[in-house]
Structures are given as C-alpha cells and as structure tokens.
Amino acid sequence: MTDGEVGAASDGEIGATSDGEGPTTRRTIERRLDALVRDNRVTIAITFPLVGVVLLIAAAEGAIPQRIAFNPLLLLGAVLVMRLPLIGGLLPLVDRRALVGLGVLAGFTYGVELVGVYTGVLYGEFEYLIDLGPMLLGAVPLALPVFYFPILLNSYLLVTLLSGERLGAAARLLAVLCVVVGMDLVLDPGAVALGFWGWETPGAYYGVPAQNYVGWILSGIVAVGVLTLSLDQDDLAERLDRCEYVLDDLISFGVLWGLVNLYFGNYVPVALAVALLAVLVRADRFDVAGLAASRGPTPTDD
Q1: pLDDT, mean of residues 148-175
Q2: What are residue 141's DSSP bridge partners?
Q3: Quick one: DSSP state of residue 68?
Q4: In sequence order, which residues have a C-beta less than 8 Å from that of residue 111 and are 6 or more positions away?
Q5: 186 and 150 in contact (C-beta within 8 Å)?
Q6: Secondary structure in 3-state letters for the chain
Q7: From 115's CA, which of 64, 230, 237, 293 has a CA 20 to 30 Å away?
Q8: Beta strands 126-128 and 197-199: pairing type?
Q9: How far apart, in Å, are the Cα atoms of 173 and each of 148, 156, 182?
Q10: What's the mean pLDDT in 267-284?
C-alpha cells in the first residue's frame, strides 16, 4: 500500500455521525466533501467568482456600505468556498508525510512574506492596504496560506496533469515556474488595482515591480521540491485522472481575476487569464455544459 493509499484509507474515529449510527470516519468526510463539490461545481467555480467580481469592484468604487466592503470574514469565507475543489481533490492524498510537507511550505510562506514586508527582500518593499483578518506580527495575514498556497499547488497539479511522465525533473520545474509566474502576472495587477496591497516603488507592470517575480520563482522552486518529496506521484497522477474537479480552483481564478483586470483595463493580465482558461478547456477541465451535467452519483475509489 502506498503512502497516498494509507492517507485515503485512514478510518480513525473523529466524531459521531449526525444520525447517531456510529463514528464519522475520515473516509466518510472525504466522500461527503467529494459529493458536495461535484454537485455544486458551477456554483463554486463560476457563480462565486462572478459574484465576487461584482462585490470587489463595487467595494473599490465605494458603491457598497463600508461595513461589508472588503470585509475580511466575507473575503475569507468566499475564498475558502472557491478552494473546496482543491481541498476535496487533494484530501485523499494527505498522509503524515504530506502534512509535514504542507507544514514546511506554510512555514516558508510566512517566513518569506515577513521578510518581504519588513525588508523588501525577494518581493520588493510592499504592504497590505486592506484588512485581511488577524495579522502575524502585525504584518502578514494569518490566513496567508489560503491565498498563497493555491498558486503553488495549482501550478504543480496543472503541470503534472498535462505532462504525465513525459518531462524530466528540470523540465517539470521550469514548467511549474512558468505557470506560477504566469498566475501572479494575472493576480498582482488586479490586487493592486483593487487596493489589496501595493509597493513603495511601483513597477512598470501595472504597478508591480519585476523584483516581485524573482520572489515567486524562489517560492516555486521550494514548492516543487517540497511537493515532489511529500506527495506520492503515482497516487497523485491517478487522482488527477479520476477527479475531474480538482483544478476547478483555476477556473475560479481565471474568471475572477480576468474580469477584475478587464474592468481596470489591464489587458495583458486579461490575455493571460484567457490563456489559462483555454488550457483548461483543452485539458477537458473547463466545460460549462459538462460542469452543469456533473451532478450525479459520486464515484468511489473503493
């Protein structure tokens, strides 16, 4: 049995079921989350980001009450909903080794972000301009991994799905780095336009300095190394093949940030967002008709 199978088959008791018939196992939670995501793919991958675009732009333009404009609880709640496909897709693969790897990646995330905020090293001198909830050391959101992880994880998953075993280690690393930087070339201009964060010395690329992308390259290198060591690659390839929704978070990303950038006239990020969605269409992962028809019996891995 592989590490991934150990993680998927873990049936430790973690509570009582709502019907009182016995303990709720990890496998039960995985199946319920799997069914929830499959039955609501359009809502999660399309509706949530569309509503998010409207609310974010309205907040930036001062068109909604201050108490709900960029409200950190609403922001975090909406982001967590859009992360459900990524969580549900990877949860069966998370064993002790994967947990350690994700913990290392989380520690690295907080570390480089704190260094960036206080020193300007890697990402340039920047600061958060809106409330994103409780802050670590008064500088970095505690919820940072929720915002930061998906760029690294989704880039790794997309390259793994598209490349299979055709790429060597160096080529795969380069491919993941291209996707990571490409996603941030979409994200940062939109976030700057909305006033989420900004740089003391704005750069030529929609206010984002080139140094920022040096930081993302370093993050990508670390992420590829950690994820390669902590995830069973055979189990991951099988999960990507069998779980049609695992990359739906990329659909949400492309729709939300593509439209935000379109509103603010950031046309290069718009083109990159469209290219990302086109890749997902080509990979048979973004088909609105298919998403709407995805409701039905939940496949099992038994």
Answers
A1: 90
A2: 135
A3: T
A4: none
A5: no
A6: CCHHHHHHHCCCEEEECCCCCCEEEHHHHHHHHHHHHHHCHHHHHHHHHHHHHHHHHHHHCCCCCCCCCCCHHHHHHHHHHHHHHHHHHHHHHCCHHHHHHHHHHHHHHHHHHHHHHHHCCCCCCEEECCCCCCEECCCEECCHHHHHHHHHHHHHHHHHHHHCCCCCHHHHHHHHHHHHHHHHHHHHHHHHHHCCEEECCCECECEECCHHHHHHHHHHHHHHHHHHHHCCHHHHHHHHHHCCCCCHHHHHHHHHHHHHHHHCCCHHHHHHHHHHHHHHHHCCCCCHHHHHCCCCCCCCCC
A7: 230
A8: antiparallel
A9: 18, 9, 14
A10: 94
- Whether residue 207 contacts residue 198, with contact meaning beta carbons closer than 8 Å, is answered with yes
In the chain the first and final C-alpha atoms are separated, in Å, by 14
- Relative to beta strand 135-136, strand 13-16 is unpaired
- Secondary structure of residue 94 in the 3-state scheme: coil
Tokens representing residue 205 in the block: 């690329």
pLDDT tens for 105-126 read: 989 888 888 888 888 777 877 8
